[in-house]
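Hi V.,

You were right to ask for the full record rather than a summary. Here it is.
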Amino acid sequence: MQKKFSFLTLILFLLIFIPSIEAAETKELTTDYVTRLQNEISGDISRLQQPINSALAEIKLSSSDIRTRITELADLTEKSSDDMAAWGYTDEQREFHTQVLSQLSVAYTAYEALSQTLQSSKAPAEINASELENTTSPDINASDELRKEITKVSRGLDVQVFYLQSRLSKLKADLNEATELQKKLKAAQEGGDALELPRTHVLRLELSRLNVALTRLQVRAQWKTFDQNVANIQRLRRRLADMQKNLIFPQEVLDGILEKLQTRINELTDELTSARKALDSANAALVRARAALGSADVSILTNASAAYTARSARVNYWEYMISLVDDEIGINREFQQAWRDRYKLFHDEATGEEIWKLRDSAQNRINELQSQLDGVRTLENSVLRQVEATQSQATAEGVSGVIQQNILQAAENYRKIISDIFNRYEALIPDAVFLQQRIYNEANDNISALRLAEKVSSFSKDTVMGFLNTELWQGEGYSVTVSKLIIAIAVFLSSFFLSSWGSNWIKRRMIYRFKANITAANGVQRIVFYILWVAFALIALNIVQIPLTAFAFMGGAFAVGIGFGMQNIFNNLISGFIVIFSRPFKVNDIVDVMGVQGTVEDIGSRSTTIKTWDGFDVILPNRYFLENSVTNWTKSDLKKREILKVGVSYDADSRKVEKILLDVVKGHSQVLKNPAPFVIFKNFGDNSLDFEIYYWIELRTSSGMKVSSDMRHHIMAIFEREGISIPYPQRDIHIINDEAKKIAPDEPENPEEKSENA
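Predicted structure:
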């Protein structure tokens, strides 16, 4: 019995410490990753060394040579106008030659400056053990600051690696360009293809080689910085390891931290009160601006609308500010509790149950904070777009004076939302994440086998074992105890996963080896699953020596359950197998069932999943497919006919409109050529000449809404170019003036004159 208890304790211990093991493995992988990056980049640089030396063999790059060449280029630039006139250069060729000379001068100057910078830079000095003792206090607060510094430098490595890779790609491109220019020059010198501008070509070759040299220097400089940061991280880690040996967390440090946090909370409370007063004032100003605006449209720029926009932006600023300060007060209070929890963990004052709760709550809080940070960044992007839109509105043509000042004030208020609020969020939330991460790690460090054993042994062993040996029922030659039932359930659940794995293996073999249809493979997989499940269940009962007669009393209840509560379940199961084998539709077909339209994702034994056009998964019981009509849009083919209606004004040429519409629909890449699209002059409408475009699309590759939208954009553009208008609803009203008719002169007696007058 004691052995069984120890075995269960060991299993729980391993399950608990899997996250810690994974964290340690991740740390080692991170270190290996940095080393691998160093080796890969070093290898890329070494492989490029030979072609670089070949490309730079004919260019002088010493300090004196560079200064001499810069002077020569200045002389060439000064007399280039006369030289190009003598060479017979065109205006375009003159501009190109001058541009190459200018680029050469700039490149030489940049190369010289970067060379001097590299020569003057020094490698970071090592820190010895004695310096470690004096540079940093061994308290836990200083340890956290050191960890933050390590994280900051580590994140900078990602940016440096990206820059190094981009510089190496540019270096390869510069080498290829230099090689091509050298080939052309060599061919011209050997009597091959003539160069159009030989003098300019030589300068271009020199510029290309200089770019190779400059990029190589940039790679060296960044590589040196990368190595320095790696060395800094290693030194910081050694310092942290040394600090951890003598780490302290006295009550005085905790009291000082809590006092600072309380002071900050008091300051934030005062700031919150001031922000609420400012919001009330801003709302009052907004109400006055709204009243001054009246019923006018805000989108039309006037003095009143611009003032309203500025006041609205100000209200938004203070609303965001209140939300920030309120969140910051809450997070600082979390900081206080977090430091108290860390103090208990550090001094082993937390019980095992408290440690588990701290670790779980810290993990949950980290996830919440990360989601909050993502939301803040999304809001920041939205406000940034508002800043750009408002700025564009302020600088638009015709906007000036008071209107422009108000619009610029609105843009400034939006900018302050980013600088004063979102930037504070992006500094506050990572600090909260860091503190929760420290609690999580420190709780993990405190979880040990001893505490786990204490937690398990808190229950009486005799009571637990007595419960496990409790006899539930017995029969002829057998007895069912709690322990036997638990083992049977465990084996039964294991059989579920084994059955799932075995049936899925058969399904994969059918699909990939025998090229079976996925719907048929799903049907076979489910049948095999139930067979294996029943077989493993019988084996489980045999292992614990529980005969089937022990469950005989459940047969009647099972039958009654099928007759009443479970009839729908079995109805759906049977319907599922009918759907699978009759195949009215299959996976990936597009269907319409009871108004639900979408793609068949999965045909299960009880239900079928349909993904609608809105991206939702609708789960329908299988009996619905037998009891209702099902429209399968893709059973015979994947073509669908679409109709696009267009109305034009009565003064438009109907034949010309028909030709334009037919050209548009035929020219769309996603409209099928067969069946061919066609255009119908549908009707003389009340306000327009009505046309209808009939066309077909492929459902698997096209969206009817997207295609029709694209064609509407195209039709609008062509109609505007051709002067064809799409009319608004309109009415013609004829007014007859009776008094004018009475005093009008007599109508002529001649019928022809009467007809002409009419």
